[in-house]
Amino acid sequence: MSEAAETTQQGARPSERVPNAERRKRLRERRIRASRSAERMLGRAGGLRTLRERLALLEQAGDVYDLDEPADMYGDGVVEALEDKVAGLLGKEAAAFFPTGTMAQQVALRCWAGRTGNPTVALHALAHPEVHERHAFSQVSGLRPVRVTSEPRLPTADEVRGLDEPFGALMLELPLRDAGFVLPSWEELTEVVEVAREREAVVHFDGARLWESTVHFERPLDEIADLADSVYVSFYKSLDGYGGAAVAGPRTLIDEMKTWRHRYGGTVFQQFPTALSALIGLERELPRLPDYVRHARVVAGALRDGFAAAGVPWTRVHPEEPHTNEFQLWLPYDADDVAEAAVRHAEETKTLLFARPWAAPGPGLAVTEIDVRAVGLSWTAEDVRVAVAEFVERLKEQISG
Fold first, then answer.
1. Nearest C-alpha neighbor of 241 from the set 38, 78, 39, 40
2. What is the pLDDT of residues 115-146, one digit of tens each?
3. pTM of the model as a whole
């Protein structure tokens, strides 16, 4: 079907047009096109940008590193500079760069297992390795994950204290993305860490988005990281880099991790584009993240007000006051209808209110993630409410059509 023909059918219910798989593929393509042509948006993921747009990021590389230095080879040069930068930011002795977070955390916890003599890793049922990594801990690294809780929040001290078997490491995802980018209070986090230490376990932070947590905790990064024995961070989730990750911790641990990085195939010949993009993210995006978090709270309140004014039966912003610049929005409608209306709204108004896909957590329910970035700082609460009204108008047409 041509794009024009597809557009003429937008008023029909999705299920009446094409099979689910094909329809969702086309919807995704339309959403990406709408993202690229949008004149206003709250946030835009790097993965949806063109190659030209992504390559333009390196135009700032000379501001963060001497480009007359030799290119990196197998982890030296600019990669070492990035490692030193991360270690300093997190207040740790050293850091190791990895091409992926999946590899980084496997290696970190494998090394801790050797030190503690216990390969059991206590973690949340929604933790990234449990949900999104095809059981890599057990299938690749000889680790044994044990779930502390499946509640949509971080584990409590009582749950860690009451775990009925020994564990060598407690892994805490901060924030817990699949539960709504949620964080514990500072007091709750420190108590959980203390209990883990009482149980003679090390504490590892899955801090892919830890960069976003300082506003909620009201603490600097190094003070937050100081609670953990090791900390993993990502360079693309919050910082808009090309990819890559790092783990910071004691120098002896990091030295061993670099040995295992080589064995896992992570010591890549040259990684200067990724390392430079990470340094740019640390220079440009990291200082802005607190502003994004604060503005996400304005956006969240305006979304609630806008949906209420538009006559939607109920709307849930989760958390009610976002802990980071990312949060969930829940609506009481079929996810396919909501997704179609969201794309139509973006196509017709050039305003991208919802940049991410919609999922169906249950019948008659739709949930998406809202991500507020630099491009969203210009939105006022009234701008959000107007966009919501425009979207709901199309949603009602979609449902009744």
1. 78
2. 999 999 999 999 999 999 999 999 999 999 99
3. 0.93
Q: Which residue's structure tokens are 């973690």?
A: 123
Three-class secondary structure assignment of the chain: CCHHHHHHCCCCCHHHCCCHHHHHHHHHHHHHHHHHHCCEECCCCHHHCCHHHHHHHHHHHHHCCCCCCCCCCCCCCHHHHHHHHHHHHHCCCEEEEECCHHHHHHHHHHHHHHHHCCCEEEECCCCHHHHHCCCHHHHHCCCEEEECCCCCCCCCHHHHHCCCCCCCEEEEECCEHHHCCECCCHHHHHHHHHHHHHCCCEEEEEECCHHHHHHHHCCCHHHHHCCCCEEEEECCCCCCCCCCEEEEECHHHHHHHHHHHHHCCCCCCCCHHHHHHHHHHHHHCHHHHHHHHHHHHHHHHHHHHHHHHCCCCCCEEECCCCCCCEEEEEECCCHHHHHHHHHHHHHHHCEECCCCCCECCCCCCEEEEEECCHHHCCCCHHHHHHHHHHHHHHHHHHHHC
pLDDT-derived band at 371 (thresholds 50, 70, 90) equals: very high
Q: Tell me the domains of the chain and their CATH numbers.
A: 3-50+288-400 (3.90.1150.10), 69-284 (3.40.640.10)
**Separation between Cα atoms, residue 119 and residue 111, nearest integer Å:** 9
- Spatial strand order in the sheet of 316-318: 316-318, 326-331, 366-371
**Residue 12: predicted pLDDT:** 37
**Which among 80, 67, 79, 86 is positioned nearest to 282, based on CA atoms?**
86
Q: CA 301 → CA 289, 316, 351, distances in Å?
A: 19, 10, 19
Tokens of 189: 């986090």
Q: What is the pLDDT of residues 347-364, one digit of tens each?
A: 999 999 999 999 999 999
Q: What is the pLDDT of residues 36-94, one digit of tens each?
A: 899 999 997 777 788 999 999 999 999 999 999 999 999 999 999 999 999 999 999 99
Cβ atoms of 95 and 84 within 8 Å: the answer is yes
Residue 283 has pLDDT above 80, yes or no: yes
- Residue 108: per-residue pLDDT: 98
> In this structure, are residues 139 and 163 in contact, taking their beta carbons and an 8 Å threshold?
no
What residues have CB less than 8 Å from 390, skipping those under 6 apart? 345, 349, 351
